[in-house]
Design a protein that fits this description.
heterodimer; A: 3 helices; 4% strand; B: 484 residues; alpha/beta; 15 helices; globular
Chain lengths: 95, 484
Amino acid sequence: MSLSLDDVKRIAHLARIRVSDTEAAQTQGQLNGIFSLIEAMQAVDTQGVEPMAHARDVYQRLRDDRATETDRREAYQAVAPQTEAGLYLVPKVIE
Amino acid sequence: MTYHSLKQLAGQLATGKASSVELCQDYLARIQARNPDLNAFITVDAERTLAEARAADALRAAGNAGPLTGVPIAHKDIFCAEGWLTTCGSKMLYNFVSPYDAHVIEQFKKAGMPTLGKTNMDEFAMGSSNETSYYGPVKNPWDMARVPGGSSGGSAACVAAGLAPAATGTDTGGSIRQPAALCGITGLKPTYGVVSRYGMIAFASSLDQGGPMARSAEDCALLLNVMAGFDGRDSTSLEREQEDYARDLAKPLNGLRIGLPKEFFGEGLTGDTAKAVQEAIAQFKKLGATTVEVSLPNSGLSVAAYYVIAPAEASSNLSRFDGVRYGYRTPDYTDLTDMYEKTRAEGFGSEVKRRILIGTYVLSHGYYDAYYIQAQKLRRLIAQDFAEAYRQCDVILGPTAPTTAFKLGEKADDPVQMYLSDIYTIAVNLAGLPGMSLPCGFDGQGLPIGLQLIGDYFSEARMLNVAHQYQLATDWHQRTPGGF
């Protein structure tokens, strides 16, 4: 399997990473090198093997439904690029 | 006191020979003198360190000191520490002063151990050489033209150079063990779930695990006693009784069964590394151990499975870096998508971008089963291989890395070659097992060689016992690089 230049640009857009044409071409070669390493997997017959999502077979813990966190909005927003009146500011998304 | 053990430093504090402030001042002076060349630290904040040291001295004066109170430690810059710049080696977090502490940091604070600084690392822990750091590569103190390994390369280099008595690291595919090997120190990756991931910036959540890096197995045991523990804020933290990881250090090794995986002793293992590992095996036999050949038939596929699973999880985890809530935001943008795309293009380095793209692809529609599910099935086969091997042995032994430290720039442009430097460590993360690296010799150029021990789940105390007994009989771990 081999990624085309268009594939690279499409994935980059899905990942919200801007790539120039030059970068896309460079990246294409490197990603195809990595995928040739990954392809080794396909030779193995894994029929009937249960996928292992997690290193240990543990169950998700549940906790009581009650508020445990204190309000630290100011501390958390102090590191944000742009805030106003306790809100995070981003470019206008609805006209 | 540059190369003193934690126990020796704690002894000096307990007998009043030194204060925590004095210890910290000594290490800070060494950092100031040597870090400009070594680049092992991203952030040093002497005032903050000394304030913590004064608090530790006060704790001791009040009679409330624990075993390591006042002994300083350096933290990998992946751990969020309140009031400290926490960059994760990335431009994306160049201005992120953490508003909270990771669980690991809280544990060290409770133990009264001052922070000496935040150590350099591959960007978002993605790398095996420290060359992907936005803050420049770390040098290997054994040869300044060579890499220290990665991703916890700053932690490994600062301990090897005596700029800190110990450091924290994290290990997703070998990031504690491989740099420990390349820098000639001891490092332990615990069983997945033993150390909380809360506040440890996520790379691949089902593989990431924090652990200690120090000059000996005994020091690692003392540090793991501080780091380990249940934390409800990490959904995969394990609820277990608190253990004393140093409890078995003194046990003799009579009757220990060491498994030697034939796949680790094949054609890839040559020269000085092969010789040093064989000599270590001979030493263990002298100490009363027996060896048995075991097989990990699917371990050859671990690199392939890892480079699907880790990038897939990374692409999801790193979606949070979008220029909205913290970190870097591009200065010029027209709309929201433009802001996201430019922020991420400018904030991430090329290795991180590559992995996000791989992960995005393998999780995308139409490819999920062929890549992600197939990789997870291989993961089970790899874990089953280990379970089978542990029917015949107590601990598995082999090399940590296929080569000693390579030259800066040697593999920087070839991702696949770089990935293969973790060929012996990755399977351990996929299975969630504990693994450690300890020094076992030097190659012809005077570069350290690492020996890897892999234990069954929760056998850290036994592994540390095995490593400690080896270190009582050898002095590889006490060697120090010339010029430091």
